[in-house]
Specification:
The complex is a heterotrimer of chains A (about 375), B (about 375) and C (about 280). Chain A is built from eleven helices and eleven strands. Chain A has about 375 residues and is α+β, with helices and mostly antiparallel strands. Chain A folds into two domains: about 1-45 and about 240-375, no CATH class; about 75-225, no CATH class. In chain A, strands 1, 2, 3, 4, 5, 6, 7, 8, 9, 10 and 11 form an eleven-stranded mixed β-sheet that branches. Chain B has about 375 residues and is of the alpha+beta class. Chain B has helices at about 1-10, 15-45, 45-50, 75-80, 140-145, 185-190, 210-220, 230-240, 245-270, 275-280, 285-315, 320-325, 335-360; strands at about 55-60, 70-75, 85-100, 105-115, 125-130, 135-140, 155, 160-170, 175-180, 195, 200-205, 225. Chain C folds into two domains: about 5-230, Rossmann fold (3-Layer(aba) Sandwich), CATH 3.40.50; about 235-285, no CATH class. Helix content of chain C is about 30%, strand content about 25%. In chain C, the strands form four sheets. Chain C has a six-stranded mixed β-sheet, sandwiched between helices. Chain C has a four-stranded antiparallel β-sheet with strand order 2-1-4-5, covered by helices on one side. In chain C, β1 (about 5-15) and β2 form a beta hairpin. The chains are: A alpha+beta (about 375), B alpha+beta (about 375), C alpha/beta (about 280).
Chain lengths: ~375, ~375, ~280
C-alpha cells in the first residue's frame, strides 16, 4: 500500500509539488506566527538575562522589567552593597522615549548603565566611552539609515552613535547610554526639570558571591532597604514572559487558530480532490479483493506522505520568510524552532493528515466495485 | 464554452466548496490581520481621540502620547492659560506601566486627573462613578470582565493599591488599557512634583487651533504644541508602524497560499477533465477558448472565496470581540478593496499552471482508452 | 470428478421497486466446471455485467445462492467477501484497469499482498506469469507506455497472481484489435485447457465463441443455452451487413420471407420501398 501511495505521488510530480507547497505554505504561516510570538518571549527573556545579574532589584510592588516604571532610592546602592554575600550592585535606569526623525517615530527603550547591564554584544563599532555616546539596536540603524558616527537626537539632546547591538523586546529596539549621558539629557532637554525629583535609578543589578545563597541574600537586602523588591532574574523572566503572553496570546492565538483551520481545509481539500479523481482505482482495488481497511490505510499513508513532503517545504518557506523579516526589520526575532511551538505545529498537522484521510472515507466506502466494469 | 465551465465546476460541489472555503480562509486571515492591526491602532489613540482638545501641549521634542514620556512645568500651564484665544487648560499626568488586578498583570496607560476634573476623564461610565478621593481608580469595563474584578476590588500600580470605583467603556485595548487615577497619587508614583505630562488646551470660539498652537510654541519655552489632528496623526502612525512588517509578510504569504489553492483546484479540475478537454480540442475548440474557460473557472472560485470573506468581514468579525473582549477589530473598506485587488491577482496566478497544462494538452488524448 | 467451481442457483437480481422494478437477472441457475470456458452473450443491458458481478461477489443477489469452490458466498458477511475475491477469483476488465502509478511487475504483484504466501513465492509466480505472457521486456514499464494487448496481458497476469480457480472476464477483447484480441483469447484458452482455470467471459465478440465450451445467452435477465450451430448469418437487405438471425431483434415477414435488420433505420428504409430491397436480394443474395 505504501508503494502505491508513493508511486501515486510520483506519477504526477507537478500535482505533488503543488499540493506539497500548498500544505507547506500553511505550515509556514503557522510556524511564522508561532515563531513571531515565541521570538517576542525570547526577547523578553534575553532582555533580562543579558543584564547579567544574580538578583535584580526593583521598586517595591514592581515585578516586571520591560515597559514598567520602577524607581528605587538613589542611596540604596550603598545599603545593598553592605549586605553580606553581595559583591556589587550595578545601577540601571530605563527611559522609554519616542525617537523621531523626519516625522518617522519609533518607541525606543533606552537603558542607562554604569558598570554592568550594558549591551550584551556589539555587532559593529565600540562600547560607550563618554556621555555623548550611544549604542543602538541594529534595527534602528537600518530603519533610519544611521551609520556609526551619526548623531542620534533624543528630544533636543544630540548623542553620537558609536556602536550597534542587537537587543529589542516588545517590538521596541533598545539603546544604551551611560549615566553622564542621561544627566546631560535630562538637564539639556528638560526631560527632568528637577533632577532631585526625577527617578535616576530604575533597577539595580546585584552581583553575588558565588558561594552566597540567592534566597537568603535577597531576604537580607529587602530587610536592609524596605522600599524595594529583590527578584531572581529567572522569576523576572517568568513575569515578563507571562505579561507578554497576556499581550500577544489573544491575537496570536486567534491568528494561529485561523491558520490551523486553513491547514485542515487545505489538507482535507487535497485529499478529497485526490481520492475523487482516483475513485475508479479504488473500485478496481475493491474488486480485486482489497478491503475497506486496506484502502483506508492507503489513503492514510498518502495523506502522511503529503505531510512528509510538505513539512520540509513549509520549514524552508518559513525559514526564508523569517530570514527576510529579520533582515528587513531586525527588531523581530522569529523563533521557528522553539521546541514547544514547533512540535505542537507538527503534531497538529499530523492530526490534520489523519482528518484529511477521513474526509474521503465516505466516498471510498460507498465506491461501487462494479465501477471497475465501466469504461474510461 | 462558459456553460461547460460553469457546469463542470459546479458538478464537483465538494471540491468547489472546499476550495472556496480554503480561499476564503486565507483571505479572512489577511482581513483579520488588518482588522486586528487597525483595531489596536485605533484603540491606542482612543483616549486622545475622545478628549479632542483644540491643541495638545507637551514637552519639546515629544509629538505624541503612545509610549511617550513628557514633562511640562506646572507654571507653563498657567502661562498658556493667559495666552489670548485659550479658553481652558486641562493638565493631565500620564504614565505607561504594568498594573496588577485579579491575579493578572497587564500594560496600561494611566492618566492622573486633577481633583473634580471631568474634562480629561472617562467619557462613558458603564458602572460606578468618577474618582473623587485618593487611591481610587476607574478601569475599562472589558478589563474588569477579563480579570474578573468589579467595583470595590483592588488594583495595584507599583506599590500603591487603588480601589476600583468605576468602569468605563471604549478604553480597553490589549496594548494599552486606559486607567484613571487621582493626579496626586500618580504624581507620587512618578515622583514628578511640579510637572504635568500633557496639557489639553481648548480654544475660544472662532480661534484657529493651528494658529493657537503656533502662538503657544512661540510664547512658551521648550514645549511642543500640536493641533488635535496633528497629534492624533502622529500617535496613529506610531501605533501603526508597530508590527507592520509582520502584517505585510502575512498578507503576502496568505495571498500566495490562496493562489496555490486556486491553482491546485483548477489544476485538479483540468486533470480530471483532461479527456473532456482533449475532446473539446479535437472538436475544433481553440486553446485560447479553453484557456479562457480555465481563467473563468479560477475567477469564479476566487469570487466565491472573496464573497464569503466580505460576508464574514461584515457579519462575523465585528462580533468576535463579544467572545474575545480583549480584541479590538476594525474592518476598513480600504482593506476590502485591497483584498479585491489581491483576489484578482490570485485568480490570475492560480490559473497559470492549469493554463500551461491546457496549452500542452494533446487532442489525440480523446482517442485513448 | 470434482464438483463445479461456480454453482449459482435461482439467481435473481432486481433494481428499483414497485412498478419501476427491473429484473436484471431473473432466476438464473448455472454450474461452471473446472477448466471450462463459458461465454455469456446477450444484447446490451441484458444483465450480463450484473450476473458477472454477482458471480464475482461484487453484488449481492436479491434471491438465490452462489457457491464458489464450495463456499456459499451469498451467506457470507460483506467483510468476508474481499478475501474471496482476492484468493478465489481473478478479474479481467475491458478497460484493463491497471494502476497507472505502478510498473508492470508491481501491477501484477499488487494483489499478492492479500495472499497468505510469502513475498518470494509471489515474486516467483509473477516472474513465471511475466514470462508466460511475453512481458519480459516490459517488466518495469508503466501502463501508459503499453499497447492495448500488453495492458490486457498484464491484467490477466494480475488476475492469476493469487492462483484463483475462477477467472471472470468482462469484454476482454472489447478494446483490442483483431489480432491482439485473438492473442488474448488464446491465452484464456490455454489457461483453461492447460492450467485448469474455469473462465467465464462476458462478451459481444462472436470471435470468442471459437474457444468456448459453452455459450449462454442472456436476454431480459433470463439465461438460455445456445449451441454454436444455432448461428444463422443473414444479410440485412438494406445495408448488407451480416447479422445473426438467431439473435437479431428487428425482423419482419414480407412475402412469406423473414427479413432481419441491423437497426430501425434499415427497417424504415425497407418499409418505404420493400420491392427495391427484395429485388436487390434476389439478384445479389
Amino acid at each position: 500500500m505504501f508503494l502505491l501511495a508513493w508511486r501515486q505521488a510520483l506519477l504526477d510530480p507537478l500535482r505533488t509539488i503543488l499540493t506539497s507547497i500548498a500544505v507547506g505554505s500553511v505550515i509556514a504561516v503557522i510556524l511564522i506566527l508561532g515563531g513571531f510570538e515565541q521570538g517576542q518571549y525570547y526577547q523578553l527573556k534575553q532582555n533580562i538575562l543579558n543584564r547579567n545579574a544574580d538578583l535584580i532589584i526593583t521598586q517595591a510592588g514592581v515585578s516586571n522589567f520591560i515597559a514598567v516604571r520602577s524607581s528605587i532610592p538613589q542611596l540604596a546602592r550603598a545599603d545593598i552593597k553592605a549586605v553580606k554575600g553581595v559583591i556589587d550592585a550595578h545601577p540601571i535606569t530605563a527611559i522609554p522615549i519616542i525617537y523621531n526623525k523626519n516625522n518617522v517615530r519609533t518607541p525606543v527603550y533606552v537603558l542607562v548603565y554604569d558598570t554592568r547591564g550594558g549591551p550584551s554584544s556589539i555587532i559593529k563599532g565600540h562600547e560607550i566611552k563618554n556621555g555623548r555616546d550611544i549604542v543602538i539596536d541594529i534595527s534602528l540603524a537600518k530603519k533610519y539609515n544611521i551609520k556609526l558616527g551619526d548623531s542620534f537626537n533624543v528630544t533636543d539632546f544630540e548623542f553620537k552613535v558609536v556602536g550597534f547591538t542587537k537587543e529589542a523586546a516588545f517590538m521596541m529596539p533598545f539603546a544604551f547610554i551611560n549615566y553622564d549621558g542621561m544627566i546631560d539629557l535630562f538637564i539639556e532637554s528638560e526631560i527632568a526639570p528637577d533632577l532631585s525629583t526625577f527617578p535616576l535609578l530604575s533597577f539595580m543589578l546585584v552581583e553575588l558571591d558565588p558561594a552566597a545563597d540567592k534566597t537568603i541574600v535577597a531576604k537580607k537586602i529587602e530587610q536592609a532597604v524596605p522600599s524595594i523588591d529583590v527578584i531572581k532574574p529567572e522569576q523576572l523572566v517568568k513575569n515578563d514572559v507571562n505579561m507578554g503572553k497576556v499581550f500577544f496570546k489573544p491575537i496570536m492565538g486567534l491568528l494561529v487558530t485561523i491558520g490551523y483551520v486553513i491547514g485542515m481545509l487545505v489538507v482535507s481539500l487535497i485529499m478529497y480532490a485526490d481520492i475523487r479523481a482516483r475513485i475508479k482505482s479504488f473500485a478496481v482495488l475493491k474488486s480485486l479483493g482489497f478491503s475497506f481497511g486496506r484502502l483506508f490505510t492507503c489513503v492514510i499513508i498518502q495523506s502522511f506522505l503529503l505531510l512528509v513532503t510538505a513539512i520540509p517545504i513549509g520549514i524552508l518557506i518559513a525559514m526564508s520568510i523569517s530570514i527576510f523579516i529579520e533582515t528587513m526589520s531586525p527588531v523581530y526575532i522569529i523563533q521557528l524552532f522553539e521546541p514547544g511551538m514547533f512540535s505542537q505545529t507538527l503534531l497538529a498537522f499530523f492530526i490534520f493528515a489523519f482528518i484529511g484521510a477521513l474526509i474521503p472515507v465516505h466516498a471510498i466506502r460507498k465506491t461501487d466495485p462494479m465501477l471497475a466494469f465501466q469504461g474510461a | 464554452m462558459f456553460r461547460w465551465t460553469w457546469k463542470s465546476l459546479f458538478n464537483q460541489r465538494g471540491t468547489l466548496i472546499g476550495s472556496a472555503l480554503g480561499i476564503a480562509c486565507t483571505f479572512i486571515l489577511v482581513i483579520f490581520f488588518d482588522a486586528v492591526w487597525r483595531g489596536e491602532s485605533i484603540q491606542v489613540v482612543s483616549y486622545p481621540n475622545h478628549m479632542k482638545p483644540d491643541v495638545w501641549v507637551m514637552q519639546s521634542g515629544v509629538g505624541n502620547m503612545h509610549m511617550a514620556m513628557s514633562y511640562v512645568w506646572d507654571w507653563k500651564a498657567d502661562k498658556i492659560a493667559e495666552i489670548p484665544g485659550v479658553r481652558k487648560v486641562t493638565p493631565i499626568l500620564y504614565m505607561n506601566s504594568v498594573v496588577k488586578t485579579g491575579g493578572h498583570e497587564m500594560f496600561a496607560f494611566i492618566v492622573g486627573l486633577t481633583p473634580n476634573e471631568k474634562r480629561a476623564g472617562p467619557w462613558k461610565l458603564t458602572a460606578g462613578r468618577h474618582i473623587k478621593n485618593s487611591l481610587e481608580t476607574v478601569i475599562p469595563d472589558v478589563l474588569s470582565r477579563i480579570t474578573n474584578v468589579s467595583i470595590g476590588d483592588k488594583l495595584r500600580i507599583t506599590d500603591k493599591s487603588f480601589t476600583i470605583v468605576g468602569l468605563s467603556a471604549e478604553t480597553y485595548s490589549s496594548a494599552n488599557s486606559v486607567l484613571f487615577v487621582p493626579f496626586s497619587d500618580l504624581e507620587d508614583i512618578l515622583s514628578s512634583a511640579g510637572t504635568y505630562s500633557y496639557l489639553l488646551v481648548d480654544a475660544e470660539e472662532g480661534v484657529d487651533p493651528k494658529r493657537l498652537a503656533e502662538r503657544i510654541r512661540n510664547n512658551v519655552e521648550k514645549v511642543n504644541a500640536l493641533t488635535h489632528e496633528e497629534f492624533i496623526k502622529n500617535d496613529l502612525s506610531m501605533a501603526k508602524q508597530m508590527g507592520v512588517e509582520i502584517i505585510i509578510m502575512m498578507t503576502v504569504i496568505s495571498s500566495a497560499l490562496a493562489a496555490l489553492i486556486v491553482g491546485f483546484t483548477s489544476y485538479s479540475l483540468v486533470i480530471r477533465r483532461r479527456r473532456e478537454l482533449a475532446i473539446i480540442k479535437a472538436l475544433g475548440m481553440g486553446s485560447v477558448n479553453i484557456l479562457i474557460s480555465v481563467m473563468i473557472q479560477s475567477a469564479i472560485l476566487v469570487l466565491i472565496g472573496f464573497i464569503i470573506t466580505v460576508l464574514f468581514s461584515f457579519f462575523v468579525i465585528p462580533y468576535i470581540p463579544l467572545l474575545l473582549p480583549q480584541l479590538t477589530l476594525s474592518i476598513s473598506m480600504n482593506a476590502i478593496l485591497q483584498l479585491g485587488i489581491i483576489a484578482l491577482i490570485v485568480s490570475i496566478l492560480g490559473a497559470l499552471i492549469p493554463a500551461w497544462l491546457v496549452s500542452r494538452l494533446d487532442p489525440a488524448t480523446a482517442f485513448h482508452v | 470428478m470434482t464438483g463445479p467451481v461456480v454453482s449459482a442457483k435461482n439467481l435473481t437480481r432486481s433494481f428499483g421497486s414497485g412498478h419501476t422494478v427491473v429484473m436484471a437477472v431473473d432466476n438464473v441457475t448455472l454450474d461452471i466446471m473446472p477448466a471450462e470456458i463459458v461465454l455469456i452473450m446477450g444484447p446490451s443491458g441484458s444483465g450480463k455485467t450484473t450476473l458477472l458481478s454477482m458471480l464475482g461477489g461484487l453484488l449481492r443477489p436479491s434471491q438465490g445462492t452462489i457457491e464458489i469452490s464450495g463456499t456459499n458466498i451469498t451467506a457470507l458477511k460483506e467483510s468476508a467477501l474481499p478475501e474471496i475475491r482476492a484468493l478465489k477469483i481473478g478479474f479481467i476488465f475491458q478497460t484493463f484497469n491497471l494502476l497507472d502509478a505502478l510498473t508492470v511487475e508491481e501491477n501484477i504483484l499488487f494483489p499478492a499482498q492479500l495472499h497468505p504466501g510469502d513475498k518470494h513465492q509471489a515474486k516467483r509466480r509473477a516472474s513465471k506469469l511475466i514470462k508466460q505472457l511475453g512481458l519480459e521486456n516490459r517488466r518495469t514499464a508503466l501502463p501508459q507506455t503499453l499497447s492495448g494487448g500488453e495492458k490486457q496481458r498484464v491484467a490477466i497476469a494480475r488476475a492469476l497472481i493469487n492462483e484463483p480457480k475462477l477467472i471472470l472476464a468482462d469484454e476482454p477483447t472489447g478494446n483490442l484489435d483483431t489480432q491482439t484480441g485473438q492473442e488474448v483469447m488464446m491465452i484464456l484458452q490455454t489457461l483453461a485447457r492447460e492450467h485448469g482455470y474455469s473462465v467465464i467471459i462476458v462478451t459481444h465478440d462472436p470471435r470468442v465463441e471459437d474457444i468456448a465450451d459453452r455459450i449462454l445467452w442472456l436476454e431480459d435477465g433470463k439465461l438460455t443455452d445456445r449451441k454454436e450451430e444455432n448461428h444463422k448469418w443473414v444479410k440485412d437487405p438494406v445495408c448488407g451487413m451480416h447479422i445473426d438471425e438467431w439473435t437479431a431483434k428487428i425482423k419482419i415477414d414480407y412475402n412469406n420471407t423473414t427479413f432481419s435488420f441491423c437497426s430501425n433505420t434499415c427497417l424504415k428504409r425497407f418499409d418505404d420501398n420493400p420491392a427495391k430491397y427484395t429485388k436487390a436480394m434476389s439478384t445479389n443474395p
